[in-house]
Amino acid sequence: MMAFFELSPIMAERIADLYSRMEKAYDLVARRLDFTCDGCPDNCCDSYFLHHTYVEWGYLWVGLMELAPERRKSIENRAAEYAAACEKALAREERPQLMCPLNEEGRCSLYLHRLMICRMHGVPSSLTFPNGQTKKFPGCFRCQEIVGGRQAVPSVERASLLRELVAIEQELLGEQQGQLPKLKKTIAEMILSGPPRR
Ligand code: SF4
Ligand code: SF4
Question: Is position 198 within any domain?
């Protein structure tokens, strides 16, 4: 029988600590660019992203389980609507642009449990690989306008943060690492699937 991947309190603390350091790294760059989301005409919570770690999925569920059942139910209903609309868009070979089921009145209803991609989107960032090659992420459209033609642009380096996330993931999966399906889920799918199982 499949069992839940229960995040131990220590594991949950570790991911919370890592998430808060991601936030600090983001804020530092945002401050240097004098960039905030205030007054943005867009809401990037409608961006289509797939997420790849069981530990983030598990920690999202730690947050969902803290909500009152009726609140969780309405999130699940929105997730079902999202998943159906997403499937239609993908069938039309379009990139879905749908509001995340966790977004309520423009705000993230599980802010402390939002995933790494949600924490990185906005300011410029980079990911340096062990071979020295770097992938650059320019930031959201609004940040790109602010950055304009600047020569030296501060950015968040994701590599060490991602390495830590992978280390926590490996610890969670233990011997099952490599035996479980490779994860590729939207937040809606993570909600609809229930907590991750082994
Ligand atoms: S989890 Fe929160 S921050 Fe991330 S897309 Fe959904 S509403 Fe936005
Ligand atoms: S990250 Fe950029 S696009 Fe998203 S809400 Fe903030 S300013 Fe707007």
Answer: no
- State how far the Cα of 119 lies from the Cα of 55, in Å rounded to an integer: 16
Both tokens of residue 80?
A: 């079902």
pTM of the predicted protein model: 0.92
For residue 25, the model assigns a pLDDT of 97
pLDDT of residue 43: 87
Decide: residue 49, CB within 10 A, 0-12 exposed, 13-18 middle, 19+ buried.
Answer: middle
What is the rounded CA–CA span in Å between residue 191 and residue 159? 27
HEC profile of 22-73: HHHHHHHHHHHHCCCCCCCCCCHHHCCCCECCHHHHHHHHHHHHCCCHHHHH
Range of 14's domain?
A: 9-34+42-192
**The pLDDT value given to residue 197:** 82
- Residues (pLDDT < 70) of the chain are 1-4
Q: How far is the CA of 23 from the centre of ligand 1 (A)?
A: 14
Q: Is residue 83 part of a domain?
A: yes
CA-nearest residue for atom 4, ligand 1, is: 118
Q: Angle formed by the axes of helices 159-173 and 9-33, to 10°?
A: 170
User: Which pLDDT score, from 0 to 100, does residue 51 have?
Assistant: 92
Provide the pLDDT for residue 2. Answer: 61
Pocket flag, ligand 2, residue 195 (CB < 6 Å): no
